[in-house]
């Protein structure tokens, strides 16, 4: 994306330089109407960029809201996971307590089992005694062997006591067995319930962890999208700033050209209003119009010819003369550039069609321009006055000739074609 910005910046810099300078090194000189068209185009591009920036900012706000929502959901999941973990720890502690209780019950069960075993031995002895001695009959013998009623009562009470003791032993034996079974069953049930509960809690915690992982992934995706949108906004803002600078430069160029056109019109009007033929004025006459297709564009001497000069190449011929020197069209044609350039000063470009061959002539550094774009001129018709405007050192006319339309560094030597 940054590469795009650098490319656009370079392009904008070239465009701005061309617009600001109005240099004759461009393929087409910019007229006011074309500049305004370019200005409208740039304004439209800026509007599109601003719309894109607004859309991107809205997307960033939406992503931020999503991010906040996910953060809240993660906080809720973390709270639930912490609660579940706490419950798991509590249940595990309870399991440990239950296991300790089971261990204690096992000791109690051991004691109960020992008591049961002792009773089993005692009862077995009783049974053997019944079988061997006929204990029931002996109880009757005891009762019937009473010496008196009072003795019978005593013996009956004793027999009842012995029989009740046997019944109590049997009942206690059954109660102990039931107690052992009940305790064993209860602690085993409690332990199973706790282990099931812990398993359920662990499963719930795994589900919460999975949800948390999903939220983390979603959060990362949102963060990437937000970063991409923010980078897009920065890039679009840079492009919009470049276009804004270019639009401002074009607006300044339009004003400069309008001012130059107004000044040229005023100068032309002032020149037309001046009385001619006054011997005190240093007004040079235009050179006589020669025969053929071309005529000399101005009176004066050639101070610099076409070719190498001071280590560079001079793509034209300089004609210098003091005073108010008229500049004339070198041939019939149409003015298609008439403006002020930072390098060529007041300059006019004329396109000529001579026997089917197109030529372009350029007249630079004039003090005054007297023709506007679209003007049809005749050979020898005055188009301005010699001057010292733009990148110039002393009053002179810089004259260039092109075979065809103007093209950068493609001017030809006018000597031999234009009578200089």
UniProtKB/TrEMBL annotation:
GO terms for molecular function: metalloendopeptidase activity. Residues 313-405 form the M23ase beta-sheet core domain. The keyword Signal applies. Keywords: Coiled coil, Signal. Residues 109-183 form the Peptidoglycan hydrolase PcsB coiled-coil domain. Residues 46-133, 163-242 form a coiled coil. InterPro entries: Cell_wall_metabolism_enzyme, Dup_hybrid_motif, M23ase_b-sheet_dom, PcsB_CC. It comes from the Bacteria. This is Peptidoglycan DD-metalloendopeptidase family protein. It comes from Neobacillus citreus.
